[in-house]
Amino acid sequence: MKIKCDFCKTEYNLDRIPNTPVKCAVCGHEWVVTTQPRKNAWLMFFAALCALLSAIIFTVAVITHHQAKKANRGPLIANVLSVETTTDENGLLHVVVNGEIQNVSDEIYGVPDLIIVSTDDEGRVLAQQKFMPSATLLDSGATVSFSHILSAQPAGVKKISAHFADLQVPQEKK
Ligand SMILES: [Zn+2]
Prior knowledge:
Elements: E1 2-4, E2 11-13, E3 22-23, E4 30-31, H1 36-71, E5 76-87, E6 93-103, E7 109-110, E8 114-119, E9 125-131, E10 137-138, E11 143-150, E12 159-164
Antiparallel strand pairs: 1-2, 3-4, 5-6, 6-11, 7-10, 8-9, 8-12
Bound molecules: zinc ion (ZN).
Zinc ion (ZN) is lined by residues 5, 7-8, 10, 24, 26-27, 29.
């Protein structure tokens, strides 16, 4: 390694870092050779380690967040099984939503109101209709089906989904 006298700037070549203070042969200045380059390497390593650690923590946070989101689905799950269109005796077109509510928890749960959300192909909410399912209580592991006739649907509806009134309705994407 190369060292330089702080006083007269004379450069010397050393094979290794001396444990004792060195004395400049030119001006007689005495100083302790510091392990500056190695220190920097350690700092670089430490910085890289910190970056790696924060990346890992961030990944863990993302996974935890994802799992928490998934857990929000319970204890009740509402699924739309089929959407049919029927024409009544007056020739009016109706949309019938058939689905089921499942209790995936270990306890009896009251069934909240359901909101049928109609979205377009980009996920924008076009219409929302709230209704009360026939079942009021759902045993652990039990499934109850529902059928609801929607009022006139706006144009462009691509997807119809069911959500519980006290759970959050998906917001417009973007
Ligand atoms: Zn010197």
